[in-house]
Amino acid sequence: MTSMPDHIRAAIPPLGLNAAPNNSATVRELYAPMLAGIMDGVSTREDARYGDHARQTMDVYWKDDGGRNKPIFIYIPGGGFVGGDKRSDPVFYANIGACVAHAGMVGVVANYRLAPEFKWPSAHQDIDAAVRWIAAHAGEFGGDSGRIVIMGHSAGAAHVASFLFDPETKGEKLVRGGLLSSGLYELSAGEARDNVLAYYGTDASQFERRSALRGVAASSIPIAVSVAEYDPVNLVTPGFDLAKALCARDGKCPPIRRMDGHNHFSTVASMGTSDDDFANIVLDFVRACTA
Length: 291
Known about the structure:
The protein has 291 residues and is an alpha/beta fold. It has helices spanning 6-11, 21-31, 94-102, 122-136, 155-165, 194-200, 207-210, 237-250, 266-269, 277-290; strands spanning 43-49, 57-62, 70-76, 106-110, 143-153, 177-181, 223-230, 256-263.
């Protein structure tokens, strides 16, 4: 039995297995009342710039309690490669930064440049720059630059996977672990989704090179994988493919969770609420990686 309230458990299945924006709005309406007071006692620095472009900004969340050397948790939001924002309203995704701040960590939620204007590899290059910025400024927020864990969701998961596994970026050298949630990790010749092609391009001969999955075998970083029960199928099977690659790499199964009762948006929306199953998975993984 999960911690999801009954009214939310009943509301999610009728939304279907899709990632439609109107479903995101519905899920936010369900969880927003549960996040009252989440920012109490949390300090913020909004729109810290890690680059010159307007999208190259991040929000930082921490408790100004005199603590030092705190783990740093970076969250990269989704948006279908062509949209999304770190703070599209006053609640989300400040809930994620505040959630980890209350757990004794430094929270970071970062934006990146978007397709179609900016194509592969711009997003994971931005993530690399964002990680380097927070590492250089960690002490300002009580954080430890050597204890960074990063998470991406949806398109953000695809970008974080590229950051971690791409043989040129090799982001695993900068962080202690990665959580990848409901993302796309491999491109196929039959790919026809306009938003995906807007970022990765239409040249199928480049798809293997641009697929994060191809770099898993050469990596060693701890990875946790999650999908949601009501995720679209095309954002579930990539998680299983990633888990298979990690099994082959490590000779054992990685941490992998199907979040029962949740859809594509509710996992991250639940963070900071009493529906804490997903938050606890995230926090426990960060603690394990940074112990």
